[in-house]
Each structure stands twice: as C-alpha cells, then as structure tokens.
Amino acid sequence: MINHYLTLGLPEGAPMESVHRAYQKALHRFHQHQQAAQPLPEADFDALQNAYTELRDPERKAAYDRDLQEERVEAPSLPTEFSGPVQRNFAFTGTGGEYFRIWIVNLLLSILTLGIYSAWAKVRREQYFHRNTLLDGSGFDYHGDPKAILKGRGIAWSMLLILGVLDKLGPMFYWVAVLVLLPVLPWLMLRSFVFRARNTSYRGLRFDFHGSYKAACKVFLGYGLLTLITLGLALPAFIRQIKLFQLNNLSFGGERCASNPSLGAFYGIFLRAVLMAGALILGLGIVFVLMGVGGGGLLALFLDGKIIQIIILVIVVYLFFQVAIPSYIQVRMVNLVWRHSRIGEHRFASDQAFAGLLFLSMTNWLFILLTLGLYWPWAKIRLAAYRAQHTALISHSSLDDFIGQAVRQHQAVGEEIADAFDLDIAI
Length: 427
Known about the structure:
There is one protein chain. The chain is α+β, with helices and mostly antiparallel strands. It has a domain at 1-78: DnaJ domain (Helix Hairpins, Orthogonal Bundle). The protein has 17 helices and 10 strands. It has a 10-stranded antiparallel β-barrel, surrounded by 6 helices. The two termini are 44 Å apart. The model is unreliable at 75-80 and 410-421 (pLDDT under 50).
C-alpha cells in the first residue's frame, strides 16, 4: 500500500490543514523547477496528485487512515522488498540566474537597513539552497526564524563591541573581559548547532541536535586552547573534534548519526598540505637561482625591471596559498568525514577530486574578478552543484521504510517546541 503521507513529507495521520499546506508547498517547488527548465520527474508529480486526491477529502482520508493502520497491524513483520545496497546521489537543481535575483535583493536591502535585513536574507538564501538540494527526488527545507538569527548576531556583535571598548581602556580590562566571556562561546556555538538542526527538515521531518554544554566546552575551550598552546600543532585534532561534535550529536527522527574518522587521517591531510607548501617555497627558491637573483629576492627583480616576473610570482603564490591548499584540505577532509559517517544502517559516500575542485575554485575566482563580484551567485551555485554531485547515501534497506520509521518514532515523541534560547550566530 502506497504511503501518501510520506509522499507529502508528513507523519501518518497528519491533520487536514497540514495536508493542504504540504501539498501547496510541494506544488510550488514543482512549478519553480518547471520555470527554471529543470522539471522534476513526472512520476513524482503524479504521486503528489494521487496523494492529495486521497487525503484532501475527510471521508476518504479517514478510510485511508484505517486501511493504513490495518495493514500495519496485520503484517507488521513483512519487510519491504529490497535488492541490496543502493547508491542514491544528492542533486542540486538551483540556477545562477534564480539565485542572482535573490542575492542582489538581499544585498541591497541589507545595505539599506544597515545590516538588519541580513538575518532575513540568510533565511531566503538557506531556503533556496536547501529546497534545491535533493535526495531520492525530495528536497530539504529550512525553517529558521530571522528574529532568532538577528538575536544571535546581536549577542555576538555585543561581545565583540565590549572587547573592543575594553581593549582601548587597557590590556588588563581586555583580558579580564575575555576570561569572563570565554564560557559564553561554547554556549553560543551549541545553541547555533541546535538551531540549525531543528530548523532543517527532509520530507517534513526535522533534524535534532543533542550536544551538551559540557561537551561544547571540551571541544571549543579545551581543544581550542590546546591549539593555541601548541602553536597550531593541535589544529587537526581541534577540527576533528568539531566534526565529531557536529555529527555524533545529530539525529533524524529516532536515528542518531555516527562518525569516526581517525586522528591520524586528519594529521595526514595537514601534513601533505604542509609538504605542498614547502615544495612551493623550494620551487620559488630554485626559480630565483635560475633567474640570477642573489640575496635581493623580489627587490632585486624589481630593480632589474622584471615587473612581469614579479606579478606572475605574486599571482602564483597567492593562488597556491589561497586556492590550491584550501581546496586540497577541503576535498580530503570532506571525503574523509563523509566516508566514515552513517545514519542508522545507511552510510554516506563522497568522491570529490582535488583537481576538479581546484579548477572550479580558480575559474570561479577568475570570473568573479572579471565581473567585479557579480559572478558570485553563479560561483555559489556551481560549488553547491559540485558538492551534491559527489555526495551520496548508500542505502542498505528501503529508504521509504527508514523515513517511515523515523516519522513514526518522531510522532510518538511529539513535536519539538521552540526553545526560548534558540539563536544562530552564523553568517
């Protein structure tokens, strides 16, 4: 029996008003993709129409609910047929033109309101990217409250303002304020993670975050201070702890996410990045020798009138340290984390390539420079599409069964109520 509630992204037995709202929302998404010349599968549209036809009439809905319940009682142990592990790639369907219109309006209104509208701008941006990120034909959604985002940013900016004022009064006042405000940082980060998780949904079911303040202090204060004390040597361990804190406390329905990448793998990524940087420095030294430069370095080149060589060297060094090395670290880290992450019995996969992301990043920066920044929306769309294309969920059972079980577990617990401390400090 087809579960029409899953088609609409609703828990079983959802009230009539939720059915109408979910249908209108899904219909709007279909129209958006059609206008963008990227229509979703016709079969999905037919399933949506069939689900709404069955559930919009009170009598038919009541009969369907009874049949659904009887089927569950009569055959509770019959599993859905499943042929084995299936790779379900994520997909991103947004376009540069669509996002440019959102981006330019957000930018202008944020400037006119002296930054206040930026909270509402973030909600529009997140909703666009979430709704255009698809898994198994269904998009994610974002439900953040702009007022909560504005509140979080207000707290963060107030802390920075206080530190700035006290720094002018003297070092003693500044460091006392740092010590006083330091315990607030893990709390802000924790509330931000909770806010983002609880305001992200898939097929109508929201995520949740279960991290504690104590664990946040261990990560952001303990490992953060360790990174400072070791002059950056503990940075890979710090980043790993942040990833573990984010993923191992995340849940969808009744299923917790789990991630266990090794510490050695993180250090291996940064070690290879350092070796790449060392190779560049060595290569530059060889270039200087071949060009006949003595101890004068770039100054000698300048005095010899070799301006073009100077410009080329500066561009190469800039691109390497600002684009190549960050791209390498990002690709290797994303692949490492996702390949060691799972939710329930389903695991994730990621096969981003350094050469592919490097080419994407360099062309994005080139077009941004040539268009004086106007290409930025297209750059964001290209990056989102690349990430989605190279990320997948490996299903070891029916995804519909998994979502259905998550919906039932969530329904048994009840809807999450809004937390008075919900806020977001992220840009």
